[in-house]
Specification:
seven-stranded mixed beta sheet; 11 helices; Rossmann fold; 2 domains; 277 residues; two-stranded antiparallel ribbon
């Protein structure tokens, strides 16, 4: 089978996915251990019987809903190829909004904490852009901490440390910036039974209080861990911006603003901590 024939076949079978052509290219490139540009450059080249069988098996798994990132073991985020597995969320493009917002206010040297770090995507992106910063990522899951640590070593990003902690339980320092992409989906949300999230840990997705409990807890406790003038930044659901702003205002945060994602939806809210006079 030729490369172009394999891609046509797979794209047809994957018509039910959100991006059948992209899924087909990524999976075949993974099987061939090539960049996707190779497929476009050499469409007439034959693939071996072994590669064909491996590709067909991956396509079938994708038809059954298994995320492409879990099939390849890699997801790119902020141009960083991160290892992923089913112990964490798969990094998503909208989360890069959180990175962009943080970089706009971060000096070259800063102490940064990432709450619920997962693969380490956010803190590794920030650490790669601010190599003189001290970066800490925490997660309740020991498997997530192990994965994030592995990603930092693979990418040779040395200004990061990862720790296991139930939110602030094992945090002992103070920070100029605290970022988080916490669980923010209500447990009754129908999207939990659709798409890639079916294969991701519910503990990283779902929060009580209609999705606000972890956001509220972090906002309340971050006050004790932010330096004067420090920033707190959350990723949240597209309908949660107004409520998140109200909660931060009630807790005494200042300079509260919400930033929209690439689709024009509320996605990240930031606030400044200052001690009361």
């Amino acid at each position: 089978m030729r490369i172009d024939d394999a891609l046509t076949w797979a794209t047809f079978l994957l018509a039910g996915s959100d991006s059948p052509e992209l899924d087909a290219r990524v999976l075949l490139a993974h099987v061939l251990d090539k960049e996707t540009i190779y497929l476009m450059t050499w469409p007439e080249r034959d693939i071996s019987r072994e590669h064909k069988a491996e590709f067909e098996a991956l396509v079938q798994k994708r038809i059954n809903g298994v995320p492409v990132a879990h099939l390849t073991g890699i997801r790119e985020f902020w141009s960083l190829p991160l290892k992923v597995n089913d112990s964490t969320l798969i990094p998503r493009p909208d989360t890069e909004i959180l990175v962009e917002a943080a970089l706009e206010i971060l000096p070259s040297q800063a102490n940064i904490l990432d709450m619920g770090t997962g693969t380490g995507a956010v803190i590794l992106a920030l650490a790669s852009e601010r190599p003189q910063a001290n970066c800490v990522g925490i997660d309740f899951s020991a498997n997530a901490v192990k994965l994030a640590t592995e990603n930092s070593k693979r990418l040779n990003i040395k200004n990061t440390v990862f720790k296991q902690s139930d939110w602030f339980e094992n945090v002992t320092s103070t920070f100029d910036l605290i970022v988080s992409n916490p669980p923010y989906i209500d447990k009754s949300d129908h999207h939990l039974s659709e798409g890639d999230v079916r294969f991701e840990p519910l503990s990283a997705l779902v929060a009580d209080d209609n999705g606000y409990s972890d956001i509220q807890l972090i906002a309340e406790q971050a006050i004790d861990y932010l330096n004067e003038g420090g920033k707190l930044m959350f990723e949240h659901g597209f309908e949660q911006g107004e409520s998140v702003r109200a909660r931060l205002n009630k807790l005494g945060y200042l300079d509260i603003k919400t930033i929209k994602d690439y689709g024009g939806n509320d996605r990240v809210t930031s606030a400044t901590f200052r001690k009361r006079a």
